[in-house]
Design a protein that fits this description.
heterotrimer, B: 100 residues, mainly alpha, Histone, subunit A, two-stranded antiparallel sheet, 3 strands, C: 473 residues, alpha/beta, Amidase signature (AS) enzymes, 11-stranded mixed β-sheet, 15 helices, 11 strands, globular
């Protein structure tokens, strides 16, 4: 979307990602989604009097991995208390990092070549969850609420970008790339629908080159689509207000997915005074160089590097193939394409089958071995299987596993091997001597006539290229 | 002697701390907190710009635990202490406004 | 009453039993507690069951450092299933689902927790007068306060209800009542004793410590409760020091500094006791010097900003949602306000207000931030003093036990009674109060011996010298 009248949007994102640890940030309760309410709770994460927090080493390590992946400086850091009263906050303060975050001053390169700065990526604890009863089931109009503290104390990293983003599409690309990095580092499962990754967007508008305008913060966007829609709506709303001579109030806004609108949650005047101060129950965190080096060395390749590797395998890369590579990396299917390339199979075919067929059956990907995939691609390449047939074989492999040759046979594809096809072609030539004569004299169009006959006889399971090869051989 | 803090400030602080105070208490707190802050002038007037604030007095760093699951509490025992509980959860009156 | 070390020896030798020692303790409590109000809750059934377990363990041949020793627990330490109130209406009916590390260690060592003792509400006070459940009386003079905030634990031992008890010390809450009740009280080095299960007042200052009639008993209890606890991130990463073995080490060759700022302004009889104590230590072989540490004068101001600031945050969780008192309201904010307004007493509210103010936007740097820097200055000043001396000596309190109501109307006057004890908490160091001499109405006077972090053994040996010189043992 382009803003009217020469307006430019300025966007910064705050991405909250739950960390994939076994236990919570400050206690030994399980960090798991979907348990019965209030079954993963203890004195610490319920904030009972007398309880004390003890930092989870794995949470620190995952936060460092994120920092390394985002090219941040890892520095000595401290924890602070952010004080506010709210029922899902058991201690009525949140343990977070404030002036000394573990990671600061990094950046993220986007696939389109642009770069977004990362101001900080700090550790904090998640809150519990409230359910609102009565009325609409939403917070407004509810009679009372029920609170579950299973999520209370789950470790989070909050990644704050600089105000470098200039379009909703770029915001989406940033969030998507960041999600890929979080998954690749092993820090997060990136499940936005389960709330394990949530985004706040700071949006303002300005005339090109002018100083930044007043910003509004849209809270809790929980899908990439919502993120993009909310930013577009909000930026346009601000330009309309300004074009009519109004001013923007600094405020926090709520995104209504159904109505496609943002609305005021809280103005700056109503903002809480969080009374941040150093958490006296925790000590300084100062990861030494050796620990940082271990984390750096253990870090797997990030999505950008993986995309570059796959792009290097394809000659004359098309836009569609670039997209396919994006999908393959996002779904962590790189090894299929790489194995096909190493086996000298057709990389374009392997890429297409990975980005389409495997992607479609991604929940069963464990059943598909790399060897079977490469074999299937090779069979398609050799003409033993048509494209349609190869897709069907992959479908069966994903559904129930097995041997590609045996599956092809059981589906009745095997007679289309070279011998069987040869016999069919010979029969057709015999039965259609005049067409065959014209073809032999150079009327190439007639190859389609023969392909059509063979397709009819094989119910569409023949490979067109193989039929032509057979006709050529008999010329 | 005028108090270093005003009644309005004290009222604002009470709201932040989720305490209701009567007019008499407002008067009293304004005076008493004022006295304590007056006494603190000996400290607030010092120039300590170059001094680092103290964290742990013995400089402990990097205190962490292994990421190993430990038993959680029994839910019935936890909820038996709650003023209001329903369907395995803690009950609260309606919440006005989203979390900050 | 027998001393803890003698009870443990007798029970270990099967000359007595935990059940018999408990019965003695319960009988004294039954006789005296109504007048003194040291205990808020006597856990008769629980204590009997602990005593039975100890007797079984002894029968099986175990030897336990505190075998069969009844112990009183300040009611800000959690014990599973036992009411834990902090002497506040807001926790009146709360029974924790877990036990504080220090209480677990006492139980493991064979001690018998007999019940929970009165304190100033959330340990905020110096007289137990801010308790929501009535003040504790000083067993030595029922018209006077026992000190605070650990007044109930001090009174329990002074009245011989139990030979030992646990208190907590944030700005003097063990040493001051120990002085006022004629007991030995230790404020251990910050981090030496676990805070897990101690209901926080000011997290960066709080430490749990013992009360006892003798230096040896206090040393014995501290040995049991000290040592690293993985549940407390601020816990020092080392085992408990050996203390009992060193109580008779004496002070020969030790340099002890009499510090002007630690007795100036105290009553004459208190100053006289401190000077007599100095003479006794010199006679026992110590080298005495005199020092002035002007930074200590800033302690009170720094303390009364740091402690309330941390408290305002620590006490936010009393909101009527998960445990404790709830007063209903139309919406959740009204419920919070109704609950906290009804549940907290005036002193707690005053400190929450002060702390909230000190942390709020616009004032943080001037108050809380500055107070943390003063703390740094104080640590440096103490460190410099400890280059010249092994120990410092002064008074524990400016006066002997005062009368009820004499300081309740003026918070600042009450706060000033902690002026000598506060600096140790800010520095995170160790200090001991030991009775030495008496004053007005024959009431005890406490002398305070201070040392750097981890100096408990040295301090207790000096305290033992004074105990002998005072004819107490």
């Amino acid at each position: 979307m382009t803003l009217p009248n020469g307006w430019e949007m300025v966007v910064g994102l705050e991405v909250h990602s739950e960390l994939k640890t076994a236990t919570k940030m400050f206690c030994g309760c399980a960090n798991s989604f979907g348990s019965e309410p209030n079954t993963n709770v203890c004195p610490v994460c319920l904030g009972l009097p007398g309880s004390l927090p003890v930092l989870n080493q794995m949470a620190v390590e995952l936060a460092m991995a994120i920092g390394v992946a985002l090219h941040c400086t890892i520095a000595p850091s401290t924890f602070h208390r952010k004080n506010y009263f709210y029922p899902d906050m058991p201690k009525d303060f949140q343990i977070s990092q404030y002036d000394l975050p573990i990671n600061s001053r990094g950046y993220l390169d986007l696939p389109d070549g642009t770069q977004v700065s990362v101001e900080r990526a700090h550790l904090e604890e998640d809150t519990g969850k409230s359910t609102h009863l009565g009325g609409s089931g939403r917070i407004h109009g509810a009679d009372h609420s029920l609170v579950d503290y299973n999520r209370s104390g789950v470790p989070l990293v909050e990644i704050v970008s600089g105000p470098d983003i200039r379009s909703s599409a770029q915001a989406r690309a940033y969030a998507s790339e960041l999600r890929g990095i979080l998954i690749a580092t092993g820090a997060s499962d990136g499940r936005m629908e389960e709330g394990s990754m949530r985004i706040d967007a700071n949006v303002s508008v300005r005339k090109a080159g002018a100083p930044f305008g007043t910003r509004c913060e849209i809270k809790n966007l929980n899908s990439l689509r919502s993120l993009q829609r909310a930013i577009d709506y909000e930026a346009l709303r601000q330009t309309e207000v300004l074009d009519e001579g109004g001013t923007i109030r600094q405020e926090t806004r709520h995104w209504d997915e159904n109505r496609g609108e943002t609305s005021t949650m809280r103005t700056k005047e109503e903002a809480e005074d969080y009374r941040y101060f150093r958490e006296p129950d925790l000590v300084e965190l100062d990861p030494d160089q050796a620990w940082q080096d271990r984390v750096r060395a253990a870090l797997p390749p990030m999505p950008a590097a993986r995309r570059a590797r796959l792009e290097g395998l394809v000659s004359d890369l098309s836009d569609a193939q670039r997209d396919a590579i994006g999908t393959v990396v996002e779904l962590d299917l790189d090894h299929f394409v790489i194995a096909a390339s190493e086996a000298k199979a057709d990389v374009s075919v392997a890429l297409a089958r990975s980005a389409n067929e495997i992607a479609a059956g991604i929940e069963h990907v464990d059943k598909l071995s790399v060897e079977n995939f490469v074999t299937t691609v090779a069979m398609e390449q050799k003409g033993e299987l048509s494209a349609t047939q190869a897709k069907k074989v992959l479908g069966v492999l994903l559904e129930s596993g097995g041997d590609p040759g045996a599956i092809a046979k059981s589906l009745g594809f095997e007679q289309l091997g070279e011998g069987a096809l040869g016999e069919l072609v010979a029969t057709c030539i015999e039965e259609n001597p005049s067409e065959w004569a014209r073809y032999r004299e150079g009327d190439e169009k007639l190859s389609q006539f023969f392909i059509g006959l063979i397709m009819k006889l094989t119910k569409g399971q023949a490979n067109g290229k193989a039929v032509i090869a057979e006709l050529q051989r008999r010329k | 002697m005028s108090s270093p803090l005003s009644r309005d400030e004290v009222a604002k602080v009470a709201k932040l701390a989720r305490l209701r105070i009567t007019d008499a208490e407002l008067e009293q707190f304004t005076e008493q907190l004022g006295q304590i802050l007056e006494h603190a002038n000996d400290m607030t007037s010092l120039n300590l710009a170059e001094v680092e604030p103290t964290g742990h007095p013995f400089g402990l760093i990097n205190v962490m635990r292994e990421d190993e699951v430990r038993p959680s509490l029994d839910r019935d025992a936890v909820l038996s202490q709650a003023p209001d509980a329903f369907e395995g959860r803690f009950g609260v009156p309606r919440i006005m406004g989203e979390a900050p | 009453m027998k001393h803890a070390i003698d009870i443990a020896a007798a029970v270990n030798a099967k000359e007595s039993s935990a059940s018999a020692e408990l019965a003695t303790s319960l009988a004294v409590i039954a006789e005296k507690n109504e007048a003194i109000n040291a205990f808020l809750f006597v856990d008769t059934d629980g204590a009997k069951s602990f005593a039975a377990t100890v007797d079984e363990r002894i029968a099986k041949g175990e030897q336990l450092p505190l075998a069969g020793v009844p112990v009183a627990i300040k009611d800000n330490l959690c014990q599973t299933g036992v009411p834990t109130t902090c002497s506040s209406k807001i926790l009146a009916d709360w029974r924790p689902p877990y036990t504080a590390t220090v209480v677990e260690r006492l139980i493991a060592a064979g001690a018998i927790p007999v019940g929970k003792t009165n304190l100033d509400e959330f340990a905020m006070g110096s007289s137990t007068e801010t308790s929501a459940f009535g003040p504790t009386k000083n067993p030595l003079d029922l018209s006077r306060v026992p000190g605070g905030s650990s007044g109930g634990s001090a009174a329990a031992v002074a009245a011989e209800m139990t030979p030992i008890s646990l208190g907590s010390d944030t700005g003097g809450s063990i040493r001051q009542p120990a002085a006022l009740c004629g007991l030995v009280g230790i404020k251990p080095t910050y981090g030496l004793v676990s805070r897990y299960g101690l209901i926080a007042f000011a997290s960066s200052l709080d430490q749990v410590g013992p009360f006892a009639k003798t230096v040896t008993d206090a040393a014995l209890v501290l040995e049991v409760i000290a040592g690293h606890d993985p549940m407390d991130s601020t816990s020092l990463p080392e085992p408990a020091p050996s203390l009992v073995a060193h109580v008779n080490d004496g002070v020969v060759g030790k340099r002890i500094a009499l510090v002007k700022e630690l007795y100036e302004g105290a009553d004459e009889e208190v100053v006289a006791s401190v000077k007599n104590a100095v003479a006794a230590l010199e006679a026992a072989g110590a080298t005495i010097i005199e020092l002035s540490i002007p930074e200590l004068r800033l302690g009170l101001s720094a303390y009364y900003l740091i402690a309330p600031a941390e408290a305002s945050s620590n006490l936010a969780r009393y909101d009527g949602v998960r445990f404790g008192l709830r007063e209903e309201g139309d919406d959740v904010t009204e419920m919070y306000e109704a609950t906290r307004t009804a549940g907290f007493g005036a002193e707690v509210k005053r400190r929450i207000m002060l702390g909230t103010y000190a942390l709020s936007a616009g004032y943080f740097d001037a108050y809380y931030g500055q107070a943390l820097k003063v703390r740094t200055q104080m640590i440096k000043a103490f460190a410099k003093a400890y280059e010249q001396a092994d120990m410092l000596i002064g008074a524990t309190t400016p006066t002997v036990a005062f009368e009820f109501g004499s300081k309740t109307s003026n918070p600042m006057a009450m706060y000033l009674s902690d002026v000598f004890t506060i600096p140790t908490n800010l520095a995170g160091d160790a200090a001991v109060s030991v009775p030495f001499g008496t004053g007005e109405n024959n009431l005890p006077i406490g002398v305070q011996i201070l040392g750097p972090g981890r100096s408990e053994a040295t301090l207790l040996a000096a305290a033992r010298v004074l105990e002998i010189a005072d004819g107490r043992a």
